[in-house]
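Replying to the earlier thread about multi-chain prediction with a worked example.

Input:
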Amino acid sequence: MRSPIPDYLAQVLGSVESDDSGATADYIPELASADPDRLAAAFATLDGQTYSVGDCGVEFTIQSISKPFVYALALADRGFESVLAKVGVEPSGEAFNEVSLDDLGRPRNPMINAGAIATHSLAGPVGIDPQAGFERIVDGLSAFAGRRLRVDEEVFESEMATAHRNMSIAYLLRAYDILDEDPAAVVEGYTRQCSLLVTASDLALMAATLANRGFQPVTGERVVPEPVVRQVLSVMTTCGMYDAAGDWVTQVGIPAKSGVAGGLIGALPGQMGVATFSPRLDKHGNSVRGVRLFERFSEDMGMHMMDVPAPAETVLRKNRHVGADLRLYVLQGGLRFAEAERVVREVAQSSPSEHRVAFDLSHVHAIDAVARRMILEVIRRLSLEGHDVYLVDPEEVIPDPDPGDGGRVTVVGQRLTDWLERLRR
Amino acid sequence: MRSPIPDYLAQVLGSVESDDSGATADYIPELASADPDRLAAAFATLDGQTYSVGDCGVEFTIQSISKPFVYALALADRGFESVLAKVGVEPSGEAFNEVSLDDLGRPRNPMINAGAIATHSLAGPVGIDPQAGFERIVDGLSAFAGRRLRVDEEVFESEMATAHRNMSIAYLLRAYDILDEDPAAVVEGYTRQCSLLVTASDLALMAATLANRGFQPVTGERVVPEPVVRQVLSVMTTCGMYDAAGDWVTQVGIPAKSGVAGGLIGALPGQMGVATFSPRLDKHGNSVRGVRLFERFSEDMGMHMMDVPAPAETVLRKNRHVGADLRLYVLQGGLRFAEAERVVREVAQSSPSEHRVAFDLSHVHAIDAVARRMILEVIRRLSLEGHDVYLVDPEEVIPDPDPGDGGRVTVVGQRLTDWLERLRR
Amino acid sequence: MRSPIPDYLAQVLGSVESDDSGATADYIPELASADPDRLAAAFATLDGQTYSVGDCGVEFTIQSISKPFVYALALADRGFESVLAKVGVEPSGEAFNEVSLDDLGRPRNPMINAGAIATHSLAGPVGIDPQAGFERIVDGLSAFAGRRLRVDEEVFESEMATAHRNMSIAYLLRAYDILDEDPAAVVEGYTRQCSLLVTASDLALMAATLANRGFQPVTGERVVPEPVVRQVLSVMTTCGMYDAAGDWVTQVGIPAKSGVAGGLIGALPGQMGVATFSPRLDKHGNSVRGVRLFERFSEDMGMHMMDVPAPAETVLRKNRHVGADLRLYVLQGGLRFAEAERVVREVAQSSPSEHRVAFDLSHVHAIDAVARRMILEVIRRLSLEGHDVYLVDPEEVIPDPDPGDGGRVTVVGQRLTDWLERLRR
Amino acid sequence: MRSPIPDYLAQVLGSVESDDSGATADYIPELASADPDRLAAAFATLDGQTYSVGDCGVEFTIQSISKPFVYALALADRGFESVLAKVGVEPSGEAFNEVSLDDLGRPRNPMINAGAIATHSLAGPVGIDPQAGFERIVDGLSAFAGRRLRVDEEVFESEMATAHRNMSIAYLLRAYDILDEDPAAVVEGYTRQCSLLVTASDLALMAATLANRGFQPVTGERVVPEPVVRQVLSVMTTCGMYDAAGDWVTQVGIPAKSGVAGGLIGALPGQMGVATFSPRLDKHGNSVRGVRLFERFSEDMGMHMMDVPAPAETVLRKNRHVGADLRLYVLQGGLRFAEAERVVREVAQSSPSEHRVAFDLSHVHAIDAVARRMILEVIRRLSLEGHDVYLVDPEEVIPDPDPGDGGRVTVVGQRLTDWLERLRR
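Result:
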């Protein structure tokens, strides 16, 4: 059987192919002369499978899409406090090249140029020299992509020749002591960062690394820690699409970032990374067909972050008395706070009179930290009330359970039926 | 056993109780003289359970927390296009009472006063008179709360006497034809809306209605349709906390809204509604202890919207050859795009040679629309290739499955073991 | 002989007559339907002569041209301190209807609507009721014009019906406590003020009153005191032409004010008042042909305030020894600081050895306060050195001269030749 | 006799001496360590006399006071159109170092840094290299001062090391194509310009050159043409004192410019140049005691540009019939439009019936261009009506009078009495 996913991607691509509205960026010849008809889309799953259609092997410069990844590196290298002291997290409601400094001279957020230039200077350890700082960034972005990225020297040279506005921004940041380095050197490094070459497939994997809690899906490398990923995704949500942030969040609802060469990425936490490539831009500087593709993906696949999933089946599959003085709670599905709350409530309301109480986790396929703590607390309270509590957990959904504070639990590694069988004997 | 949840809530409340920083709003005597030590927190689950601690029965005026709900009513009553033509969705980066109109004279978003005043005029059908429009709003907000809300006439009178800035805003909106009505009448209605009395428990249920796709958890009433809920939650995410939106999204990560009387709500899609009440405000106009409580809730319960859940166990429990020329795929857990993709991939790669192919959904506890479509497409393709395809689905996870376009499937309502037993015979 | 001045005016009018660029204000029907071809210009001299050409008898509403005059009344009635506490004097660089409040909530200047609305409320004594306040303004503006002005009730009604933006401004001023009164009543009064009917000839006389140190040229009434005039002319200079202030000052260089009905005035201190009327406006809201007329007047008549006059002939006509032990200084022309300095210098350098020193003022036609003080100080010093000092001043250019502080002077009321004749005898 | 003027200056200086409020600029050590107690004031008359008190021989850097003079050079070298295309003339209402570009990217005016940097690049002919451009500026400013100025290299080096904000501005101007040159080279030249050393006496002479229609009072050199002077004085009026422009115009009313090293100049057209020096600055960046000194000068000497002079004596000394069929008009004083108009009116109204009409200008000490044209037009009209017209003008107040267009006049070079005597014979 042929997978329907490439067919789906091809069909969606086909549906936007004829849209030739917008225009390529024209501030340097290399971008102006890019083939405007290029079109690509790629999905990368969290276990490293990539689906690519269209011009997915064509390299283009990463441009502003480098911003969230370098922000991630800066947070990882310098810590949140150091970075937040230099760059804010508030949406600016302004175009990408606006200066937008707050009262302290801090750029409003790391997705506008001012913030990205400041962020560039924060990758690597304090006091790193510009050359080494840039190497840190190439290493880091390559780790996200899973392959060694290289600079397009022609684009770099061309952008440097017209980088007046970024030079202006960098000197202003220097005036406010947001930058300590030579502004010209920082702009050179930043421009070089923007000139790194990527394909749509690279970008999908880079986004998937964010969606995968910082682990690169193919190499398995932990590129940045989880709190950094959360911060980066949050900022992409509110600031990733420039002055169209609100439209994007309401209509697409995927943390995203666009680049002036036509790239666009989205990260679906826990699901996958998505990337598109189409050089013609709208007035906000976002890829016209890229935006349309994401609108389709969001709608077709229900990927809007504010889509409330339909209620799951009840988490409590069974609550029943079993012979041999046993109350049995059979749980199922995934457990977050909401599901654990229902278990807690059921136990609290039913107040089991049996001496033994057992929780069967055999049908639970996922449990998050808060749900685990809640279940353990229930166990602790029951054991303090004098019950013998059992956790039937053959697949170790809760490894090494410790109710703490005087609570006790007996872990049952067998299947429920086997254990009940044994009990009965 | 006593439920640990009220204990948890009480403990968290206790941890912020001594914080008396900030100050009550002082622009009218009724707010200035509010008891600043009031403190309450409430959780409301999607099946209508409410956990309340502290001053959860104390009524206070809803103020700006009415904004997202009236926005929801306007969207429901007038449609997206009409509302978006009058009020934008972009974060303003400005304080709550800034005028913040965009180039078209539209308020930037419905969470600032300008947008909320415009939104107020959009509840109910076109041409509704102010009195009836206000009734529509009381009815709507009462439906969210699940009980009849009433106006605090003293607060209303007092606010009207100093509503100069809102009058100024309303006349400006009138000048830009965003308002068609008499500005003074609109401000009166809006002020009355802000003077509706609620408790923290009411607010938790109102938030839970949003978290529950628009269904009121207790009454079961569908208050607004799902696309409206998605829009409202999106706008709360980017604009709910005024000029602290970016801080809030990165640190708390819950769609929220605060009010000047000290209320604060958060909606956790698919999980629950949360509300707090504490009258002292920070410089942004948000409740000092309310913000701290939410920071605790978010951290303790892993409720940040960008927290990537740990990867679930594999969705494919089994993929094996069974006697009688059968290939059996046993699925488990919750299926979204990412999980369905793995199933699709496995089937595509393994290309079953058996004549019969069966998918066992007995251990699947939830499946969303896109995953359902993907599984059905796999079934269609297999059947077109000549396979007999079976869907073992005793709990009707996929009711009335139709692969479409020439595809065929046989639904098996029995348990897998029973069916296999029968097959073998 | 026919005066060439009307001919000049007619010729200049003819030179702009065919210019039909711009458009009449269209926010109310009364202005939109004004005859756009109306064209008038008037000069009013400081002794009350008026030269009028074109439609100088046609009445139109004064609109914003009322602003400097009501500002003058407010300064006269409440004093500088009270008025400056409510309205600033800085150019705003913004359009007429921008809100433009400074950090204290003060409108930037009295020439933008926000400032004019605040100023309106400051005419008459503190606590005056709105009706009486409006009467004060009609009386005051009528005193400037030299005839009783009346309101165009149709324009007034029409403007009130669309005064949303001014209502917005007034409520904002109320919110900042710049206004203490009911904002709606203030806007009504302000709109009525703007609806007063004037002709170009009226406006020329009103401007001439400012040019004449506050004295109405025809009636001779002192309408406002001199420091008020100085303040009003200064503010007209920097703020009178809205966001085109810099262009106006550099190119025309006459303190001016325009109105949306097509009027435009200029005040040439010490010389005359000028007014034009032509309803089509440019994008700044200034009369197109009015601006062109003023450019012509300024250029043809050398009326730019920064035109440095060619140096006058030497102030010291003679410095010579006369028989009978007399040093004679014959002064001529007008004496300001610069001219008096030359006299002072000459006397100091020549150190007259004669016992008698005489200053002949017969040919001096004007002397300002500082020059008078300087001449008297020279006299004082000479007399303290032992000289007998004489002031030949048959026309009492320096009435009652008092050198002060021990100085003495003998005033000679005769003509120089007669006095010298007598001396010789 | 000792001149009272130095005494006056010393007395005024003494009255502000004890004011030690404000602080020296501290962004570079050279300014921070300046002696804050330095105090100087100088007057320079239009014939080159300088009155200096206090530290008038102390050199300090010219800083922003160079701006109006370099603006004058740019206007003279490139023409108005070229300069206005790059730098506007509107007050910005902002601090000196704000970027303040208008919609076209033009700096708002040449008195803020952005405008001054652009202006710096416009001195000298198009295409001049930076070194030569700087020489042009030193030559030009030296011509204004009347002596060769030199750069303080220490201040220059120190300012360059912290010129981040100006670098930022220059790169922004480059981005908008306001600058065509290398921004770093322009900032270097501009900083060097600001580091030129001057004394208060130099500055008084520089200001006096502006007050003297562009002629240096001592050297007599025409430094820039008159229209340039008018433009520079106009811009100083509205933009010279940064965000305090309105306060300055209303309270002092003298075209002025301040510098961060403590200098302050004022130009009184047709009268003199004034300069003060005192390093402590107020929050606007203007010298505290300098501002107070100018307030005193303006008040004491009636030098506010909007002070309306008291009306001069009547311009028509006599209008009478003399024997021999002659109508005699004896004029006196200074004639501008207003005075000439009275003559014109008198002649038009009196319609002389005599065959001969004579105008005696013996007592006229100044006449401007428009008044001359008006008198000649009256003569022309009278001669066309058949009169023989005589101009008694022994001092050639109107040299080579030509009524034009068929008009004829007989010039009488004798004194009136002699001529009348002759006539009678």
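The longest helix of chain C spans residues 130-145.

Feel free to reuse this layout for your own posts.
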